[in-house]
Amino acid sequence: MVCLCVYTRSDGNQKRMKKEITDRLIRRYMNNECTPEEIERVENWLADPENRADADQVMRSQWESSGTSNSENETDPYLLLGRIHESIHIKHGDVSESKRRPRHAYQWLKVAAVIVLPILFTGLYYNFKRSVKTTTPVALSMVENEPGQRSRVRLPDGSVVWLNAESKLQFPEKFENHSREVLLEGEAFFEVIKDPDLPFIVKTGTIDVTVLGTSFNVNAFPESNLVETTLVTGRVALKKANSNEDFLMLEPNQKASYSKEIQSFTIRDVDPVLSTSWKDGRLIFRDTPFHEVIRKLERWYGVEITWSNNLEDDNMTFTVQEESLERILDLMSTLIPIQYTIEDKTVKIKQQ
Fold it and tell me: In this prediction, what percent of the chain has a pLDDT beyond 90?
């Protein structure tokens, strides 16, 4: 128990009389458990400017012992101030109370301000420090594949990403805040761990793909006019990057293609294997335009291919698995009349 020795003036003379104010008495006062005599005694003591330091000590003690610092209202001096006001019945518009004890009420407000304001600023200071700490930038990791290279990446939340050739994936070392965001340039297949509280967002710079837990493929090479998202399982929501437009929902076995040129989506039903087989070591072409075939072969084998413009309109159907580039070119020459030469990492194709 803390005992404080204080002196009060009485009857207008300078004689001081020693009185004992205990923390138990202050606690009873704040809980409206005091007798009228004890109320008068405490308020006279609090109103005396000479007791300001002692009053500050007592109120801080009550603040610490109240358990507030360990609750959700940590460092919230407004709670203490509200309790103080309530304990001495000071309310806006309460004329009867103001008339009954005007002197003590106004003096008490002055004392309360002196006591509570330091606690207020202390609380704000520590809250500020805590907020600064939580906004510390998180370190980023990046995986970048060269042409002809593919990789498998495990993210901090356990989600798995297959990253295609000539593609780049950037992600934080630890997912924080309210979402799991990754940046993709190129093509990747995602198997996302379900977490309803942390949506998974793939940002491509052109569109954003938002999921809770699902598997899907995103093809977002910067030189291509199309950004394609193919859904295998679950559901995903799509929208243009940095826009307030409504989300576009995608169902399994659907592909959404976003045109950078006309800035709009188209959705069609597909066999998702055609878009995702690359992660299993296969390229499947089904009536695929020649220029698209060539671009995928360049990434797959890490070469540069040039061809005659008159081959542009040809479509091709075949599958690449473990074959060499030369074997694939031989296969293509049986489908359309072409000749080819290979010099180091350069391939030239022309029509026969």
Answer: 51
Spatial contact of 215 and 192, defined as CB atoms under 8 Å apart: yes
Quote the tokens at residue 70: 């360990």
CATH topology of domain 282-351: Phage tail protein beta-alpha-beta fold (3.55.50)
| 317 and 306 Cβ atoms separated by less than 8 Å | no
Name residue 231's beta-bridge partners: 216, 254
Q: Tell me: domain 140-276, CATH 1.10.1040.10, correct?
A: no
DSSP for residue 271: -
Domain boundaries for CATH 2.60.120.1440 within the chain: 140-276
Q: How far, in Å, CA of 112 to CA of 108, rounded?
A: 6
108: closest CA among 48, 31, 29, 41? Answer: 48
Give burial (CB, 10 Å; 0-12/13-18/19+) of 140: exposed
| pLDDT, tens only, 242-274 | 888 888 999 999 999 999 999 999 999 999 999
Task: List where CATH 3.55.50.30 sits in the chain.
Answer: 282-351
User: pLDDT: is 200 or 64 the higher one?
Assistant: 200
Token pair, residue 119, equals 């606690």
CB 258 within 8 A of CB 206: yes
